[in-house]
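Worked example 2:
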Amino acid sequence: EMQSDLSQLSPSEQHLLQWFFTDLATDQTLSLAQVRRYARHEETAPDFRRQFAIFRSLLDKEMPEQGYLDRAKTFRGRLTSCVTALAYALLAALITVFLNTGIALLLLIPAVGFLLYSGMLRRLTNRGRENYAHGQALARYLRRLHQLPPYPEATLQRRFIAYAMALGLVQPYLQVLPEIWSSQPVHEQLAVFGISRQKKQPLKQQVAQFAADLRVMDSLLSSSLLISEHIRR
């Protein structure tokens, strides 16, 4: 059954699951403190960077395969940027040689800029732009959530935590959760995050503790820790 669930995940998600919950987890449990030590310790930090590089490369492959990235337009855009960078560099060299002035070397600044831009350039497909627009709309909603009652029901609150983490808005979202619970109370829907009414600690304090744990992982890896929650669905 677990293998069947894993087959529904993308290669990048499977890599993170294997990496975090097989290689790092102790007794089938994983804490943010473990990941933090693994990422910062001088003996394990190189392996952390290597595994994360593999994860990023898998994501880069998945984007065009899933129809989000236009390879042809991306290639043309990168080629144009590289050619422009080369033109600036050649112009700087020619002016320096023939006019015997070093000020032309300032043209190397835009050359480097275009070169760096070419490495980051990605052209989205219509589907990619549509999903990007959905993400932007969700980000605006999460930023203004406290101004937009009625609040999300309890089952949606769990999903919004994952979305907020991926969008870098988890801290503002967690701050407004106690206010949301005044009209949409939560029971055990957030137990996977350590937030439960069965605990003696007040819910507001549980949220504050969860927020503190997440501050050390303010990156894409934060949302990746939630893969186990998706598998349970």
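Residues 71-99 form the longest helix (29 residues). The two ends are 12 Å apart (CA to CA).
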